[in-house]
Design a protein that fits this description.
2 domains; 407 residues; 17 helices; alpha/beta; eight-stranded parallel beta barrel; 53% helix; TIM Barrel
């Protein structure tokens, strides 16, 4: 089993141009005494929209690592894959996010449920579990865990058990998993003999793309702490890897809970995987707007096209965005904005009166517009490299890494 490092952050890069800037943020953290390992991630859906191949993620990461002289670990994540999509990720990836949320709630056989109950009577009374709640959780998650086992063994057969890291993702579903349910899930995973090293549950509250956490912070605080206890218990009693840690998906920009997470991992000594993605793409737009008139014009064009196709762009992300269309400025208004007005609306500084979370969410899912521009967009990225890279690095280090790992 390839062991995952204690602190890892998943960094997305829609167009594979910002790996160097992203890596610079990790270098800054290392200089300040905290080793955090970058995990470059890109989902199959994103590859299909952009027209890229998984190998491009590894190639961009390798180039950045070589140019920066980075001599610490790094990984490439096959993000949110399933049995139908995993094969194209086998060669370039060493980290696999097994997404089995679709299988949650599919009925398990009475015989399998009875066998699980008979095998684990010791669970009764642990974290408040009862025979009934164990049966309910097992019936809800057993099929999903079995599916994760199929994907894991498929990868293992091709790649070898010692050559990759396994994460199981159950976050893209309607109902959150309670800490007691998480324990049942982990016991099911142990029975399935998946050497899981990160688990991505669905937490309470909303983890909308590119904006802050929406929910009861006090409730999240208790839940996150309880989940850490559950993981420690499962590692001790069920033979799961000692490196097992929580993974927070859609983790970028959740500023109101970063302090909670920092204090919890500091208090317990637990590890953390935080997955970010589209926040880098938004910094590209900010960098374009600041780079000069041509970049600003292109950034405005992206907004205009995204606005005109908002229903189409938002539909695949309906469960993870919350846009008030009435609060989106018309393209005709945006076309008259200065660079400062554009970046004020988009940059995630909530104290700025110009910030517009609706604009930010729309553009977060609007990368398809840039993908259709093809070389015209990529050429402008290269032309605006200094401005973009500065924004990408500052966003990742100042607004994400610092509040998560530094007091």
């Amino acid at each position: 089993m390839m062991k995952i490092e204690k602190y890892t952050i998943g960094v997305g890069d829609r167009f594979a141009h910002q790996a160097k800037a992203q890596l610079h943020a990790f270098q800054l953290a290392a200089e300040k005494g905290v080793d955090i390992v970058p995990v470059w991630n890109k989902s199959n859906r994103e590859h299909l929209i952009v027209g890229s191949e998984p190998s491009s993620v590894k190639a961009a990461a390798e180039k950045a690592v070589a140019e920066a002289g980075w001599n610490k670990p790094w990984h490439v994540d096959a993000d949110h894959i399933n049995l139908d999509t995993v094969d194209r990720f086998i060669a370039p990836s060493d980290f696999y996010t097994l997404d089995v949320a679709h299988f949650i709630g599919q009925p398990a056989s009475p015989e399998d449920l009875a066998a699980f109950a008979a095998k684990h009577p010791e669970l009764i009374g642990v974290f408040g579990l009862t025979a009934e709640s164990i049966a309910t959780a097992a019936s809800k998650y057993l099929v999903a865990v079995r599916e994760a086992g199929k994907i894991y063994r498929h990868i293992e057969a091709i790649k070898g058990a010692d050559n990759f890291i396994t994460e199981v993702s159950m976050d893209e579903t309607d109902a959150p998993q309670t800490p007691p349910e998480l324990l049942v899930i982990l016991v099911l995973i142990a029975d399935e003999k998946i050497p899981i090293q990160t688990i991505a549950p669905k937490f309470t509250g909303r983890f909308n793309k590119g904006v802050d956490y929406v929910g009861d912070v006090a409730q999240f605080t208790q839940e996150f702490s309880d989940d850490l206890e559950v993981i420690a218990y499962a590692v001790k009693h069920y033979g799961l890897p000692e490196t097992l840690k929580l993974s927070v998906h859609s983790g970028s920009d959740k500023f109101s809970i970063y302090g909670v997470i920092r204090e919890a991992i500091k208090r317990t000594g637990a590890g953390l995987h935080l997955k970010t993605a589209g926040t880098t793409w938004l910094e590209e737009l900010i960098g374009l707007a600041e780079a000069g008139p041509e970049g600003l014009a292109l950034a405005k064009e992206v907004y205009s096209e995204a606005y005109d196709h908002k229903e189409e762009l938002c539909a695949p992300y309906a469960s993870v965005i919350d846009i008030d269309y009435a609060k989106l400025p018309l393209p005709s208004e945006v076309n008259n904005w200065t660079a400062a007005q554009y970046t004020d609306a988009l940059r995630h500084v909530q104290s700025n009166p110009g910030f517009n979370l609706n604009v930010r969410q729309l553009l977060h899912v609007g990368y398809k517009v840039a993908a259709k521009m093809g070389e015209r967009y990529l050429s402008m990225l290269r032309q605006s490299e200094e401005s973009i890279q500065r924004n990408v690095s500052e966003n990742l280090f100042d607004r994400h890494i610092k509040p998560l790992f530094f007091d």
